[in-house]
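A favour, since you know our C-alpha cells better than I do. Would you make up a two-line entry for one protein for me to read? Write everything out right here, beneath this request.
=====
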Amino acid sequence: MQRTISQTISFDGVGLHSGKPARLILRPAPAGAGIVFRRTDCGSGTPAIPALWDRVVQSPLCTRLVGADGVSVSTVEHVMAALVGCGIHNATLDIDGPEVPILDGSAVPFVEKILAAGITPQAAPVRAIQILRTVEVRNGAARARLSPDDTLRIEFTIEFEDAAIGTQTKTLNMSNGSFVRELSNSRTFCRKADVDTMRANGLALGGTLENAVVVDGDRVLSPGGLRHADEAVRHKMLDALGDLALAGLPILGFYQGLRAGHALTNDLLRAVFSDPANYRIITCNAATTARLPGAGVHAGEIPRVA
C-alpha cells in the first residue's frame, strides 16, 4: 500500500547557499499524487513543481527543481531522502522561499518530525521501477551506475586529499529502516578552502559550522567532531538516495557511485529513462514492498544526535 504523512508538519530555517529564510510545510496528499513542491511566495497561480528527474536543472552543489514557469526550489535532496527513507510516496511540500532549509545539514530533523507525525497507509498498490540492465554514466574520474537487483542497494566511494576524509567506501541495503538507522543523521560536508571560494562567489551564505562538517587537512573544524568516522561517505549516500527519489517511484536496483555528485546521478536517471529496455514499472507484491526503503520503520530507529 502507498503511504502519506498523517498530519501537516513544518520546518523553519535558512537555505545553505542562498542564506534566505524559508518555511517548509509538508502536507498529506492522496494516493498517486507523488511528491510535489509548491512555491507559496510566488502567487496562487504558480504551477506546482513535481519532484521528478526531468525537472532538474543541474548544479554541482545541490539539486534544483524548476517548474513550468521558471520558478524553482533548490537543495531538495535531504527532504527527498527523508521522505523515501521513511516510505512516504505522496506528499505536498509548500515552501515560501527559493531553497529548502538546511537545518542541521542532515536529514534527521525531517525524519524525526515525519515519524512523530505518523504515516497513513493508502488504498493503492505501490509501483516500482525495476532496473533490467546495467546503465552507467561517467564524467572524468566520476562514475554512477545502476544495475539489476531485487531491492535498492547503494554503494559509494569518495576520495579527498584532506586526511580528515581521505578515501571512504560504504555499501548498504536500503531495505526497511536502513536509511534512518545508518544515514539520516550524516551531515553535508566541505573543505574549508572550498567554503572560502564559494562564499567569494556568493554561495554557501547560510552555511555554518553547526549545519555542515567543515574540514581543513586532518582537522574537523565543526564543534563536536564527526557523528560517524565515515560520516562523509554516508552523507553522499544520503544525497544519492534523495536524488534517486526523483525517479518518481521506488527503484529496485544497485546504485554505485564513485566521486559522483548530484548532476551525475541525474545524468544516470536520464540515461535509464532514455531507453525503455533499461527498466520496467511493476506493481509490488507484499514481499517486494517489504524490501523497500522505509517499510516498517519506526521512531526507535532514529540515531541519537549529540
Helices lie at 77-85, 108-117, 178-182, 192-200, 231-244, 262-273, 286-290. The domain at 2-122 is CATH 3.30.230.20 (Ribosomal Protein S5; domain 2). The chain has two domains: 2-122, 127-301.
